[in-house]
UniProtKB/TrEMBL annotation:
Keyword DNA-binding among UniProt keywords: yes
Bilayer-spanning residue ranges: none
Protein name listed in UniProt: DNA-binding protein
InterPro entries: Hist_DNA-bd, IHF-like_DNA-bd_dom_sf
Segments for region (Disordered): 1-56
Pfam families: Bac_DNA_binding (PF00216)
């Protein structure tokens, strides 16, 4: 069935503007605007975003969990057990060693102590009652401990 609508032409609208004054004048200005000349909002498509790169793990970090604190009396006991010397002989040596290490760190000296490793100072901060020294200790990887061979082989 044919449509009863006829193609529409652009509409013309008329508006009247009065000039500023108390009396309207007889001459009225008419403006005509057609629908086709109206400004249309421009629609722009946003550029497509590039796909995100896949995440890769560069290096795994191991969290540092602080264990029990080693205090001076326990350190002295361990040295006595390791050396087999008497406690009264070991105690002044351990205290002197700790004093020398503390003074060296306070002066900012790097230390290379082979069983312990290399001690390097990263940064220091002076506080009211103390000096904070942040250090880095680099230890060589220890070789697998070898089992001591017994002096005599077990009899069969």
């Amino acid at each position: 069935m044919p449509s009863s609508k006829t193609p529409t032409k652009p509409r013309k609208t008329t508006t009247t503007r009065a000039t500023s004054g108390a009396k309207p004048k007889t001459a009225v200005r008419k403006s005509t605007v057609t629908k086709s000349t109206r400004a249309k909002p421009k629609t722009t498509k946003a550029p497509k975003a590039a796909p995100a790169p896949a995440a890769k793990v560069v290096a795994e970090t191991k969290p540092v969990v602080s264990g029990p604190v080693l205090k001076k009396p326990e350190l002295i006991d361990r040295v006595v057990a390791e050396t087999g010397m008497k406690k009264k002989d070991v105690k002044p040596v351990v205290e002197a060693m700790l004093n020398v290490l503390g003074l060296g760190l306070a002066k900012g000296e790097e230390m290379n102590l082979p069983p312990l490793g290399k001690v390097m100072i990263n940064r220091t901060k002076d506080l009211a009652k103390a000096k904070v020294i942040v250090t880095k200790v680099r230890q060589p990887k220890a070789a697998a401990p070898e089992e001591k061979d017994p002096l005599a082989e077990a009899a069969e």
